Amino acid sequence: VGEPQYRFDATLHVYLDGSGGVHTRDKRIRSCGWSWIQVIQQDPLDEVGQYGPIPGDQTVPNSEAAALLHFLRFLVDNRPGEQAVVYADATSTILGWKALQHKARISPIWDDIRSVHTKMGYQGTTIDLRKVHSHPDKPRKSFPNGIVQDPVLTFGNDRADHWAGEGAKIHCVGEFAANFVSWIDATATIIQK
Fold first, then answer.
1. What's the predicted TM-score (pTM) here?
2. Which residue in 156, 189, 177 sits closest to 35, CA to CA?
3. Alpha helix locations (H) across the chain?
4. Left if phi > 0, otherwise alpha if psi is -120 to 50, otherwise beta: which for 147?
5. Cα(92)–Cα(73) distance, rounded to whole angstroms?
6. CA–CA distance, 28 with 116 (Å, rounded to integer)
7. Are the C-beta atoms of residues 16 and 87 closer than 8 Å to each other?
8. Above 60 in pLDDT, residue 102?
9. Residues 136, 154: contact at Cβ < 8 Å?
10. pLDDT tier, 187 (very low <50, low <70, confident <90, very high otherwise)
């Protein structure tokens, strides 16, 4: 998206997101995508970043971690020594980053992140990973009136969400295959009765 190798600006926030795509509720046909995005300007919209599908186990936490991995790789390969402020809406990604040594032993994606993190240390490249809330206006148990959040952060998170969805579409099964799976499920239910 928008040639990030030339237009990335370390003074602007970066937003990470992962998506389970249109079939996120059905793990049999789920196709996940990831993105990292930087909004250069909101109106007219100008943004840079990357997005794509994830290999292997198609879970949303994996896609969220993949977004972090791809951004870190971009930073190490294109902007060594830079510091970036990064926002993610996935608590699992933020906690994983904080517990990197433990997390790396239990997941291949986190093992890759740890390897890139080691390179970052050699280069002096750092990130400040922070929490952003998706749908902050939505009532929550602890926040019945929603969460007060800077609209710029909400917009950036929404753009990352959009591009993660585009990444999920790359290997998404078509409507016919999804309908076929639903038909098989319905047939199995009838047979069981």
1. 0.82
2. 156
3. 4-7, 60-78, 91-98, 100-104, 108-123, 151-169, 175-192
4. beta
5. 19
6. 31
7. yes
8. yes
9. yes
10. low
